[in-house]
Amino acid sequence: MTRLGESVARATELLSQDLSSDSTVERLLSETGSRRYLDLTDLSPEDQAELIASRTVEVLPGVSELAGRIERRRGEGRGLGIKLGIDPTAADVHLGHVVPMIILSRFQRMGHDVTLLIGDFTAKIGDPSGRTAERPPLTDEDIARNLAGYQEQVRPFFDFEKVSFRQNSEWLAPFTFPELLTLLSQVPVSQLLQREDFRNRLAAGSGLTMSELLYPIAQGLDSVALECDVELGGADQLLNLQMGRKLMELRGQTPQLVVTMPLIEGTDGTGAKMSKSKGNYVPLTATADDVFGKIMSIPDRLMKPYLEAWTEWTDAEIAAATARVEDRSLHPMDLKKVLAGEVVAALYGIEAAMKARAGFIAQFSKKTFADLGTLPVVDAAEHGSETVATVLSKVLEFQPSASAARRVAKQNGLRLVVETESGQESVMLPEAQAVRPLAEVVAETLAEAGLTGSSGAVYLKAGRKIAHIQGL
Hints:
Layout: H1 3-15, H2 22-33, H3 45-53, E1 58-60, H4 63-75, E2 81-86, H5 99-109, E3 113-118, H6 140-154, E4 164-167, H7 169-172, H8 177-184, H9 189-192, H10 196-203, H11 210-213, H12 215-226, E5 230-234, H13 238-250, E6 257-261, H14 288-296, H15 303-310, H16 315-326, H17 332-348, H18 350-365, E7 377-379, H19 380-383, H20 388-395, H21 401-410, E8 414-420, E9 423-428, H22 438-448, E10 457-462, E11 465-470
Parallel strand pairs: 2-3, 2-5, 3-4, 5-6, 7-11
Antiparallel strand pairs: 1-6, 8-9, 8-10, 10-11
Helix pairs in contact: 1-2, 2-17, 3-4, 12-13, 14-17, 14-18, 15-17, 17-18, 20-21
């Protein structure tokens, strides 16, 4: 059995135990956290390729081709040449930025050679990926400051001592105009204009500079200069990465394989990508308590993609944990606390993670809704015939009522909660219940859960908004 297989066997046993137990969670965090340093060279080429592919959007031209190239390089006595380009455009980094670094760490521990390409030249152009307007260029001082901040903040997820650094000004600055014209004569304009953001901007009459149009060419020349086997990038970088394949082919090189990474959804659950501008991000400079709290605030549906993005759990382990949530042998809150602990442990260590866990439980988990003071009241005698969505609109000011209620329910945020002296019982309401009469929904839900309104106070919880249902 491989070293990873042995670790999975131990963690699987822990995942079957009581995950509300601090001792069990601490042991689990220790086991899975140690994998961030686990030697993966004993994995077969096929297993290495599958482990990488399990956390990606696409591997082009395919996973089997990745395994085949790993095997060929192993036969040559060396590892793959892996490249990730970094345009240091900001000093502050958030969890969304570490996703490719975690994959790069896996490549490192598999015995492959990682090169971080610092886009000091292309940063002055500005990568237009996903943008609807021109990006202001950066100065040399901006780049140096941002790079220093990036490296310091990402260090918990990646070993910068085992990486090569290159700057693309090495080969792009001396590139001559005749060389550029010769190269451009072999690249169709239609290929450069395939980008959806370019088409949208042109259709809207917005500006599109030649420097932005040439950005994919510059990035492709990086791959030519490094003669890399694999290039990583976000899913929104696909056309840039494919340009690297084309230019390498034009230069008589073996085209690189392309590995695209998912764009992580923000903590607010709206579907928008994690970003500073939307305020739905987790900064790497946040305290352990803040990181733990931000993860605990996410909708339940984000637990699986977040476990995939930021932990070293395998697919089988994630499936086992989420299956326990589905069959109600594991409370979603307990799994979310494990997830939050994983992230904090990666940043600050297990001791800090357990302290943040204890602090969160002391501050939030022991509170009752009765402790929150005056809450909005729903009189079931008066509003029982109205739909849940209508009640939400009137009492909790959801606008528009039906669509907002459906959206919250779809995110597992619509619940009935019965609170007694012994604690709380929470029942999730499916999306269809949002448009049914409140009285029917309450009666049926409580009956199915074996609860009664007379046994305690009943609350309707929609996201973070709470209303007390009376008159049952």
